[in-house]
Structures are given as C-alpha cells and as structure tokens.
C-alpha cells in the first residue's frame, strides 16, 4: 500500500494547484487521476468547438506572478487545445508530473478512526493511504445521459461531448444529430454546422445565448494586463462572480426603457458575461429580468431568418441567467443554413431510436452520428459515485441523498481530514473557476497547517457549522430567481436528483469574507482533535 501525507483525487486545475502547494509546503502528496492526462474537464471535452466561456486572461492561475508574465494567450477566450497546453506547461514548469499517477480510478475511501488515516481503493484493487484526502474531482465530470428508448440499437457513432474520442472518423459530410443546447451544445452545433452534410439539433429548452465576441489577443492588451495583473485580480475578487466587469449597482427598474436599452446594446456589442452585470437586480427581480430577456429575444428574432425557427429558439421558460447563459460566435446564424434543422422536443419528442437514427413519432431522422451534449451529473455526481465512508454511519452519498451538505463547500462534518475543492456550497459555477480553486486550496492548506500546529490528528467542520451553512445557502437562493430554471446548479437536470440549489448564491466577496473570517479567527467552526 502506498502511503503519503495527502492524496489528491483529480489532476484538473484544482488537483494540480493542490499538488503544487503541498509540494511547496514540504508535504508528501500524490495525485490520483482516472484518465491518462492532466487538465480535467479540458482533457475530456475534446468536442469540436470546445472553448472556455471565461476570458483567458482571467481563466488562468494567479499563484505565480512569473507564470502570469510568461504565458501568452492567443485569444480572448482560449480553445480547449490551448488550455490543455497551459495545464501541461504548469505541470512541467512546477515539476508535478512525477507525483501524479494516471489511470487510477478511485472507487472508495474509508476513514479509520483508529489510525486517523484514509484508505483509498482504486478500480485495480490497489490501495493508497493518507492522513488527508482532497477531492479535486471537478464539478462537470460525470456525463448525464438521456434515457431514449432503444438507444442501444443505434449503430452510428454515439458521442457524449465529455467523452469525445481522440480518434474519430471525420464527421464532415455526414448526417449528424446533436441533443442539448447548453453551453456545450451551442459550441458543438456552431462548429459542426460548418462541416457536416446535415445537422439536426434536438432542443428541449431554448436557452439565452449571448455573443462571446472572441478575437485574437493583441500584444497591447496582454501587456496592459501584465503591467498590473495583481491589482486586476484583487479587483476581480470584489465582483459578484469574481470576474472583472463593469457592474452597475442599481436596479434595472430605476432607469427608463431607453437607458436600459442603450446599456444592453453596449454590453451586447462588447460581448461576454458582463452583460449580466448591467443592473443589480437581474437575478432577483422577475420584472427587471424580463427587460433583459425581452432584449435578447429581440436579437434572436433579428438574426434567425425563418420566423418559425426563431420562435423555437427564443427562450421563454425561465428567467435569463438562472441557468448559466451560453456564449456564442455564430450560433444563431447556423440555423439560417440549409443543412441545419431544429427540432423542438416539446412539440416533437423523440419517441425511440433505430439502428440508423431517431424516431419523432412516425418520422425517422437518419443519422450517422449522434452527439449527446446533455451535460453532467454536476457538482456532486463524481463524489457520490464513490463509496466514501467517514465516521458517521452513512457514507457520503447517503449523507447527501436529500441534497449535499458541507461547510463552505470545503469540508463535511463526520468526514475528518477530507476536503473538497469547489464542492457543493462553494460559489462554483457562479464564479471564476480557477480563482475559486486557488482560494479553496489555499484555505485547505492553511487548515492542514493549523491542524499540525495544534498537533491535531483530525480536523473537520462541526455539525452546527454545516447545518448553518446549508441553511444560509437555501436562504440566499430563495432571494433569487434561480429556482425557476432546470439546471445543473440545482440538480434538476438529472432525473431523480434532489432539487437543491447547490451553489453559494451570496456572491464571491461575501463567500471570501466568510472564509477569511474563519481562517483569521483560527477556524472556530472546525473541530480539531
Ligand atoms: P448543460 O448546461 O446542463 O446543458 C445540457 C443540455 O442538454 C440542455 O440543453 C438540456 O436541456 C439538454 N438535455 C439534457 N438531458 C436531455 C434529454 N434527456 N433530452 C433532451 N435534452 C436534454 O450542459 P453543458 O455541457 O452544455 O454545459 C455545462 C457547463 O459547461 C456550462 O454551464 C458551462 O459552465 C460549461 P434542458 O435545458 O435541461 O431542457
């Protein structure tokens, strides 16, 4: 049995930074990674068009000023291959590779009260022992698959976007179907529309899809950022989503319709998430939200030529921003092409599959390939898929059966010396993922250091702190419109999953304050023993 101080599960951006920090702190650590490469979500999601929807100058590590200065991003939003190169560069630059074991799928973890250690067991039966375990398993890892009757009969290529094969016969000229119109679907549809013979898009719910306005990053822009990177990072932490943007801290209803329109137009033209910062009540007031939703519907109407297709593409079922808005570059124009057809599943449901396509009632849509852009059993799916047994009777999945429980999204009462990076209860999904990861990992590292200083063999949040945090999360979510959407943020995208808003909705500054309060007061809501 391999024995170390810290086991980190997952070699995505969270796992890599956790490893770097443990190494820097002189703590023997190993990363166990299920796949054969680093980069997590960027290793798995190799579908055509895969690209980050957060700007690359912000979607990057800040822990090393040298790294920030050296690395040059080529575009405003980096594509999958470039992000993967960045992850590889970090691994080499900080000499992490020798501490990563690839192809190790962790199946279970058991805490020994007697030894005060965790034992992790991999698929292969191999065992690993550690004092601390850090689950850096990502929030978008386990694919969510649609339940289509007879899908096993389909003989074409069946491809989930998060399990895209390295080698695939080109789809150019073929008949391809895509199910799903979330961020992934939007990207893959736009890309495939250019090359396939016939593309059928199966849409269950129309989404708000906003212009990304991707472009090459000029030397000048990069230099401006690099000249005061630290200050920009500091300011970003003061923004609700941890991303720089011009935030109007007043109501959409406090200005007249013309002013609102001008504001939306300017932000539409600039592209990116900052459109959601146009007013401070877009996610709390239905009336305010309606003003922006209507603006976006108007844009869709202008861009899609066929009125019937435009109608189907116009989102009406949930308030804008209550599930992650999607970023596009030519998405709506794809539907003006003669080779692209939109099927609105609420009007024409898929009734079954055949060896050569999908049935919509009597009609068979013949397909050579079917792309499932159907998202993830997000945030909790990967962790709940493992059998994690702490000190309480229930294993972690059972403990979370009615909805996840954690303190700060970082630890779970009854599971000593176990930490989560970007776990349920953290701002993941509503924040800059990499900044959140760095902050979470820094917190965990200082907690471990504190446990050592106090000569504690175990540390975990108290049950009271966990209860209070779960209550806070629910109260914060209740003040928003988030419950109105089906999304991976509240688990409602996966049939049977409890519908609980799993993300801290109080904004990044308030979350950071809660974490900083905790650490600056010596972690009063953690039990050291
Ligand atoms: P999302 O955002 O969860 O989107 C999944 C899409 O798949 C969405 O349009 C779903 O429709 C659709 N879906 C899911 N299950 C089905 C079934 N059974 N039938 C038809 N359609 C279905 O996942 P993504 O991968 O696009 O994005 C995840 C995150 O990655 C994103 O938020 C960014 O942070 C990056 P629905 O809307 O539920 O009706």
Topology:
Elements: E1 2-9, H1 13-24, E2 29-33, H2 41-44, H3 65-70, H4 80-93, E3 100-102, E4 106-112, E5 117-122, E6 127-135, E7 157-160, E8 175-179, H5 183-195, E9 198-203, E10 209-211, H6 219-227, H7 229-236, H8 257-270, H9 286-303, H10 307-313, E11 326-328, H11 331-334, E12 340-344, E13 352-354, E14 357-360, E15 363-366, E16 369-372, H12 381-384, E17 387-389, H13 396-399, E18 418-420, H14 433-453, E19 459-461, H15 463-478, H16 508-520, E20 526-528
Parallel strand pairs: 1-2, 1-6, 2-3, 4-17, 6-18, 7-16, 8-9, 8-16, 9-12, 10-11
Antiparallel strand pairs: 4-5, 5-6, 13-14, 14-15, 19-20
Helix pairs in contact: 1-14
Bound molecules: ligand NA7.
Ligand NA7 binds next to helix 5.
Structure description:
The chain has 529 residues and is of the alpha/beta class. It contains 16 helices and 20 strands. The longest helix has 21 residues, at 433-453. Ligand NA7 binds next to helix 5.
Radius of gyration equals: 23 Å
The largest sheet is:
8 strands, mixed
* Fraction of helical residues: 25-40%
Low-confidence stretches: none
- Number of H/I helices: 16
How many angstroms separate the termini? 26 Å
Number of strands: 20
| Shape, per Cα inertia axes | globular
Structural class: alpha/beta
Average predicted local confidence, pLDDT: 97
What is the gist of this entry?
The chain is of the alpha/beta class and 529 residues long. The chain has helices spanning 13-24, 41-44, 65-70, 80-93, 183-195, 219-227, 229-236, 257-270, 286-303, 307-313, 331-334, 381-384, 396-399, 433-453, 463-478, 508-520, and strands spanning 2-9, 29-33, 100-102, 106-112, 117-122, 127-135, 157-160, 175-179, 198-203, 209-211, 326-328, 340-344, 352-354, 357-360, 363-366, 369-372, 387-389, 418-420, 459-461, 526-528.
């Amino acid at each position: 049995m391999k024995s170390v101080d810290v086991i980190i599960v997952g070699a995505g951006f969270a796992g890599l930074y956790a490893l770097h920090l443990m190494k820097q702190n002189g703590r023997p650590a190993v990363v166990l990674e299920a796949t054969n490469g680093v980069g997590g979500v960027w290793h798995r999601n190799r579908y055509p068009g895969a690209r980050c929807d957060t700007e690359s100058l912000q979607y990057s590590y800040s822990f090393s000023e040298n790294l920030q200065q050296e690395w040059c991003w080529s575009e405003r939003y980096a594509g999958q291959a470039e992000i993967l190169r960045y992850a590889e560069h970090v691994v080499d630059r900080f000499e992490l590779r020798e501490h990563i074991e690839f192809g190790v799928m962790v199946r279970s973890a058991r805490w020994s009260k007697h030894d005060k250690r965790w034992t992790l067991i991999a698929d292969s039966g191999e065992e690993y022992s550690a004092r601390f375990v850090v689950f850096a398993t990502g929030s978008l890892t386990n694919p969510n698959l649609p339940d289509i009757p007879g899908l096993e009969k389909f003989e074409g290529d069946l491809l989930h976007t998060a399990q895209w094969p390295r080698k695939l016969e080109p789809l150019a000229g073929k008949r391809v179907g895509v199910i799903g119109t979330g961020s992934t679907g939007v990207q893959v549809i736009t890309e495939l529309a250019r090359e396939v013979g016939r593309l059928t898009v199966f849409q269950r719910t129309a989404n708000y899809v906003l212009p990304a306005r991707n472009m090459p990053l000029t030397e000048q822009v990069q230099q401006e950022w690099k000249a005061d990177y630290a200050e920009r990072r500091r300011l970003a932490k003061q923004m609700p989503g941890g991303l720089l943007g011009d935030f109007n801290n007043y109501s959409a209803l406090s200005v007249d319709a013309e002013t609102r329109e001008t504001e939306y137009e300017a932000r539409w033209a600039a592209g990116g998430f900052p459109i959601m910062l146009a007013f401070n009540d877009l996610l709390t007031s239905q009336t305010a939200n309606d003003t922006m939703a209507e603006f976006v519907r108007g844009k869709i109407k202008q861009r899609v030529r066929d009125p019937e297709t435009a109608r189907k593409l116009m989102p009406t079922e949930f308030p804008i921003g209550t599930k992650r808005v999607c970023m596009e570059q030519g998405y709506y124009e794809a539907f003006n092409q003669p080779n692209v057809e939109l099927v609105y599943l609420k009007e024409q449901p898929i009734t079954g599959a055949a060896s050569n396509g999908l049935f919509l009632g009597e009609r068979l849509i013949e397909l050579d390939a079917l792309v499932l852009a159907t998202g993830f059993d997000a945030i909790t799916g990967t962790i709940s898929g493992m059998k994690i047994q702490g000190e309480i009777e229930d294993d972690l999945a059972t403990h979370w059966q009615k909805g996840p429980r954690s303190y700060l999204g970082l630890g779970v009462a009854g599971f000593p010396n176990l930490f989560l990076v970007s776990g349920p209860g953290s701002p993941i999904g509503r924040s800059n993922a990499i900044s959140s990861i760095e902050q979470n990992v820094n917190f965990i590292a200082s907690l471990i250091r504190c446990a050592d200083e106090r000569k504690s063999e175990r540390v975990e949040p108290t049950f009271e702190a966990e209860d209070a945090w779960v209550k806070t999360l629910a109260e914060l979510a209740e003040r928003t419109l988030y419950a109105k959407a089906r999304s991976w943020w509240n688990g409602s995208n996966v049939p049977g999953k409890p519908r609980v808003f799993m993300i801290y909705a109080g904004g990044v500054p308030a979350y950071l304050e809660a974490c900083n309060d905790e650490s600056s007061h010596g972690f009063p809501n953690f039990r050291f023993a």
